[in-house]
Amino acid sequence: MKTIFSYKKATVLGSLILLMTASTVLLNSCAVSKKISQRSGVQLWAENCQRCHNTPSPATFSPEKWETVGLHMQSRALLTESEREKIVAFLKQQ
Ligand code: HEC
Fold this sequence. Notes:
Layout: H1 2-37, H2 41-48, H3 63-77, H4 81-93
This protein binds heme C (HEC).
């Protein structure tokens, strides 16, 4: 009887620890996405555009062409609408 009781206690404790770990991970992931949304165009460009190829220099394309490249690379790089807008705005400025 006593062993069954402490086994249950251990299970409850284990579940609690698991729950706490899970919520910490969830909270951390929220913090990370908030940070990403605060990134500037130049930061997003430097971090994302060299994952697959060399980072393209802003001087490579005209502002109109950057619009098109931005849309194309948004789907490849899985960027959000606002991330693409920031990156394209940075690339067009130069
Ligand atoms: C997931 C991989 C991936 C990421 C991330 C990525 N690209 Fe690309 N990019 C490609 C591939 C593959 C090509 C070549 C084929 C194509 O044009 O779709 C390419 C081609 C290009 C080209 C050449 C297009 C042309 O017409 O010559 C430019 C410019 C470019 N990428 C810019 C960017 C920018 C800016 C970013 C960051 C927002 C970016 N890429 C992020 C995969 C990626």
